[in-house]
Amino acid sequence: MDEIPKWKQLRFRAEGAEAGRLSDLLRETAHAMDALGELTVLDMTFHSVLTADGELKPIIDVYYALDDDVEVSGAIPAGSNVVYHASQASPTGTGSAGAADLLKKFADETIGCLGDVSVESVVFKPLVGDGDGEVGQSMTVYYTTG
Fold first, then answer.
1. Contact in structure between 64 and 92 (CB atoms under 8 Å)
2. For residue 103, what is the enclosing H or E element?
3. How many Cα atoms occupy the beta-carbon half-sphere of 81 within 13 Å?
4. What does DSSP assign to residue 113?
5. Residues 4-49: pLDDT tens digits?
6. Torsion of CA 17, 20, 23, 27, to 10 degrees
7. Which pTM was predicted?
8. Do 44 and 62 form a contact (C-beta atoms < 8 A)?
9. What are phi and psi for residue 22, nearest 5 degrees?
């Protein structure tokens, strides 16, 4: 079995039945997370794809680490794959750039510099925190290479 490279994240995908209940997919995802054991969820994306039958199929991608220590490597859990990630954030406070400026900067300085990759997901996070611990808006791209 391959080893998890350092400084990379893991991803697993849970796919629901066509026109299935989202609650069933959420429970399936929770059971998959329980089966993996101790993990730190970094991002979770929800989306649907249109099937050939014209039905919407719900999908959940979970981006996670098996340990908070990025130096840890070990066997890749079944059903998971390794993805790279890059993030960029806006500063907070008076005069800080808004979401449109972050999108432009992310397009030019992050996505535009990745080269030939397959983008798995792009996650936008709004301003979080309160007062002193505030973090500006951020974006993360998860991708695979060659």
1. no
2. helix 99-109
3. 10
4. G
5. 444 467 888 888 765 567 788 888 888 888 888 788 888 888 888 8
6. -20
7. 0.71
8. yes
9. -60, -35
Q: Tokens at residue 23, please?
A: 């609650």
**Helix or strand holding residue 24 (H, E):** helix 22-36
Contacts of 76 (CB under 8 A, 6+ apart): 1, 2, 3, 4, 10, 82
Paired tokens of 122 = 């792009």
Instruction: Please tell me the predicted confidence (pLDDT) of residue 68.
Output: 46
Q: In which residue are the tokens 């490279």 written? A: 5
Rounded to whole angstroms, the Cα distance separating 29 from 57 reads: 15
Q: Among 111, 8, 122, 5, which residue's Cα sits nearest to residue 61? A: 122
List, in order, residues 6 or more apart from 112 with CB less than 8 Å away. Answer: none
Q: Which of 58-62, 87-91, 125-129 has the highest mean pLDDT?
A: 58-62
Which residues, in sequence order, are bridge partners of residue 61? 13, 45
